[in-house]
Amino acid sequence: MNAPSVTPVPGATASSIHTRAVLVHLHIGVWQAAKYCKEAAHVVEANYNATRGSASTRKQLLPGDASAYREAMTLAGEIRQWHRAHTLAWGDADGWRLLTTRQFTEYTTWMRAKLQAFEAACDRFADAYPRLVDQAKRLLNGWFHDSDYPEPGGIRERFAVDIKYAPLPATGDIRLDLGADQIAAIEQQVTDRVQASIAGAMHDAWSRLHDVVATIAERCDDTATATPADLKRGQKIFRDTLITNVQETCTTLRKLNLTDDPELEKLRARVERELGRVDPADLRESADLRKETAEKAQSIIDAMAGFYTPAEGAGDEQ
Q1: Has residue 149 got a pLDDT over 80?
Q2: Residue 315 is assigned to a structural domain of this protein
Q3: Considering its fold, how many domains does the chain have in total?
Q4: Domain ends where: 167, 199, 216?
Q5: Which of 54, 149, 166, 306 lies 20 to 30 Å from 222, alpha-carbon distance?
């Protein structure tokens, strides 16, 4: 697959970026209350006379009323998704992502509230855990195995969210007892790596904008001749998220434009103005509006071509 390309922005140096962003690392630990069961898979294979290894059976370890567990897992998913949506990719930095200073306050405020809710849900689950295991023992019957379950005293520590921050690497701060030429070579490596990561972060930003616009172009063109009745019957349905995703992406990218790329901001504002204000209910009712919106989206994609080239296959529906 070809890598996407983006036109470099003059002046976007490692030193200029150093004051605009920090690196952030998110780790979420949870206990997965499910387990693949080879015994059950073998029973299924034997029942259907299937080849050994062709079946995969997943056992739910908490089949009863485990609302606190489900709440904790939902919050963990929301935290992970929000983290990725409000940060940018940062090279091969082992899970580290880039958080702009313009986004920092909103990020930390949102995270603080969600982490409190997550911790409370985990506490409730830990309190209910012994009862839930007893309930699972009755409901799973012969499929229950004590070895599948952590000890009650250790279940709470299976759930944790850890967020770490670090400054971006900067040149001019190499304090080593080396010769000037060796220090210069190290600083050049730092600079090259940061520059490559800056380019990757901007690829990420451009890709997000391109993808939501491409989705609108595809969906509106695909449903251009559909009737409202077709859409209501679900034959060619699209949901309100077609537009709300555009709105959310445009709002986020206003703060994630790391290099203050004027072309990215110009096209972001155009997407917000021409596509983000369309009423999805009107789109479902009007074939003419869908055709017009598809044409606007394609026009924006054409305008992006001078600055951003998506990877092969980018924009495909996921």
Answers
A1: yes
A2: no
A3: 2
A4: 167
A5: 306
Q: Is the pTM of this model over 0.90?
A: no
| 102-143 pLDDT per residue, tens | 999 999 999 999 999 999 999 999 999 999 999 999 999 888
pLDDT at 4: 46
Examine the domain organization and report whether 57 and 102 are in the same domain.
yes
pLDDT at 104: 93
* Residues 192 and 259 occupy one common structural domain: yes
Based on the domain organization, do 154 and 262 belong to the same domain? no
Note whether residue 213 is domain-resident: yes
Judged against a pLDDT cut of 50, whether residue 233 lies above it is answered with yes
Domain match, 25 and 149 both: yes
Within-domain flag for 289: yes
The answer to whether residue 3 sits within a structural domain is: no
Q: What is the pLDDT of residues 177-228, one digit of tens each?
A: 445 665 455 455 656 667 778 888 998 999 999 999 999 998 887 766 555 6
**Do residue 60 and residue 184 come from a single domain?**
no
pLDDT the model gives residue 204:
93
Domain range for 73 is 19-167
> Which of 232 and 310 is assigned the larger pLDDT?
310
Judge if 150 and 195 occupy the same domain.
no
Same domain (yes/no): 135, 24 = yes
